Amino acid sequence: MSKKTTNSRALDAGLLTLRVAVGATLFAHGAQKLLGWFGGPGIDGTTAGMQHMGFEPAKTSAVAAGVSEAAGGLVALGVGTRVAAAAGAAAMIAAADVHRPSGFFAQEGGFEYPAVLGLASAALALTGPGRYSVDAVVKHPLSREGAGIAALVASAAGAAGVLTRRKKALALKVG
């Protein structure tokens, strides 16, 4: 076995490990928001939380956040990885912004945790899932590098729009 083959297999194993960890974590958070699984609030509780945080319309925001995170299940399996990972990155951009006023560290309520999940998701959108994935087997057009870049740009733009709307809604509550 050549060194290149060994390095390639190690890279693919690393991507598989990253996909499963990030994807399963995102899925669990999405399932909490949408379905109330794993001790989560479900859609009604998430909607109330979104309203409290200034996301309007709150229910649409709750569903979008839950679906974006639940797409992590696809990331874990390596199905639609680039697009699903981009969706997860967008959800984490919004989550990090909510936590930003509390500083960096998670134990102080900071943005550390969503930032790491978001950046790992963005990395997967850029790199793709690796050889050990459904995407590698089916070679769907959305598995291509350009699709990941486009999905990441679109997701970041969408997150920016949501956050702009949130800041306006919060300013109206204060004013």
TrEMBL record:
Pfam families: DoxX
Keyword Cell membrane set for record: yes
Coiled-coil regions listed: none
Subcellular compartments: Cell membrane
Lipid bilayer topology: Multi-pass membrane protein
Keywords: Cell membrane, Membrane, Transmembrane, Transmembrane helix
Main location group: membrane
PANTHER family from the UniProt entry: INNER MEMBRANE PROTEIN YPHA-RELATED, OXIDOREDUCTASE CATD-RELATED
Family under the similarity heading: Belongs to the DoxX family.
Protein name per UniProt: RpiR family transcriptional regulator
Biological classification of the source: Bacteria, Bacillati, Actinomycetota, Actinomycetes, Mycobacteriales
